[in-house]
Amino acid sequence: MSKLFLVRHGQSLWNLENRFTGWQDIDITEAGIEEAKKAGMALKNEKIDVAFTSALIRAQHTLTIILDVMGKPDIPVIMDKALNERSYGNLEGLNKAETALKYGDDQVRTWRRSFDIVPPGGESLKITYSRVIPYFEMHILPLLKKGENVLVVAHGNSLRSLIMYLENLSPEEILEREIATGIPLTYSYDGKFSRFENGN
């Protein structure tokens, strides 16, 4: 049996400022650093063979801290933009509350929380899923099938896409799933995926 660990990056500066971040390369805050350290402590006794992360600094920085705290800084790390956050297009950098005042709460909620509606110039969760899952099936799943344990540090919506796939959730179910920053989620794999309810 192998294990898959998923971690959303620690709090970023634009998380703190309530901005749409998407593909903007924003680093984590001091609070995000502490979240990453706690994730490292939570995973300290786990065996990790390889780690994957996105092309964005907030996920990479979080992963580096996790591996340092685990005492495993030399684990192979693979970075790919397929694991990037969902692009919010023209909304990136805008304050979410101010955007809601301009376009209305319902419109902003639709952009953020629908499965297949695309924000202006950006990606829907459906589009994000269509790049995350083929990458997972091609590069990560074969390692799990070989019995290797894999850590993925990524973003709210790229991980939401992956969780939808792992747990066979409907679009409605996955849109209700909140993914906290810096808290590991653990799945076992023995031909099928099972989630450890205690996370880790």
Automatic annotation (TrEMBL):
MF (Gene Ontology): phosphoglycerate mutase activity
Highest taxon of source: Bacteria
UniProt-listed CDD domains: HP_PGM_like (cd07067)
Protein name, UniProt field: 2,3-bisphosphoglycerate-dependent phosphoglycerate mutase
Reactions this protein catalyses: (2R)-2-phosphoglycerate = (2R)-3-phosphoglycerate
Site location (Transition state stabilizer): H155
SMART domains: PGAM
Physiological role: Catalyzes the interconversion of 2-phosphoglycerate and 3-phosphoglycerate.
GO term, biological process aspect, one: glycolytic process
Pathway annotation: Carbohydrate degradation; glycolysis; pyruvate from D-glyceraldehyde 3-phosphate: step 3/5
Family per record: Belongs to the phosphoglycerate mutase family. BPG-dependent PGAM subfamily.
Active-site residues from the entry: H9, E85
Keyword Isomerase: yes
Sites where the protein binds substrate: 8-15, 21-22, 58, 85-88, 96, 112-113, 156-157
Record's keyword terms, sorted: Gluconeogenesis, Glycolysis, Isomerase
